[in-house]
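Good day; I would like, with your permission, to put a structural problem before you. What I wish to show you is a protein chain and, alongside it, a tokenised description of its three-dimensional fold. Please examine both parts with care and let me know of anything in them that strikes you as inconsistent. Thank you for your consideration; the sequence and its tokens are set out here:

***
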Amino acid sequence: MPLIERDDCALVIIDVQSDFYPPKRLDVDRQRFHDMVRRIAWITSVADRLEIPVVVTEEDPQASGHTVPEIREVLPAKAVTLPKNAFAVWDNPDIAAAIEATGRTTMILVGIETDICVAHSAIQLHHAGKRVVVVDDAAYSPGQAHERGLRRLAGHGIETLSTKELFYDWVRTIQAADTFHDTHADLTVPPGVRL
């Protein structure tokens, strides 16, 4: 696959909601989840500064709450946030329309859960003719479900990469990376990302 063209990308943030994993869910690694949220917030900030459109989904927000504040606070002004009823974003007409309205054909997916909503979304978008890339360290499912989801994506030929790899595909050159860091020194690199 060729490198990712940032001018053809849209970022799709899937279901990173405040009550998706209530305290009674003892199978959730809270630190891994928190680190994922910080990576998504950083990717979102980078996307905003590179003028990459952002679409956000919220599964059953009445039950699972809204997008976590760490991400909501950094959303671009033009970001679209929509409720999601079908697990795959593409199977929700309003979300599919918002994705199409970006005019982009490369979808960068982050969020939860890797093995269900992220996987369903990636597979359906891929079959709709989109190039789909899942950021594997900015997606999450409890326990072994994360790795199972990544294996399923690989079986469908869907690309995965890390937050670091995504950033460098977006900036492409040493000069562009240095300029980005100098211009946006306020962005704190999230845990586990070495730029």
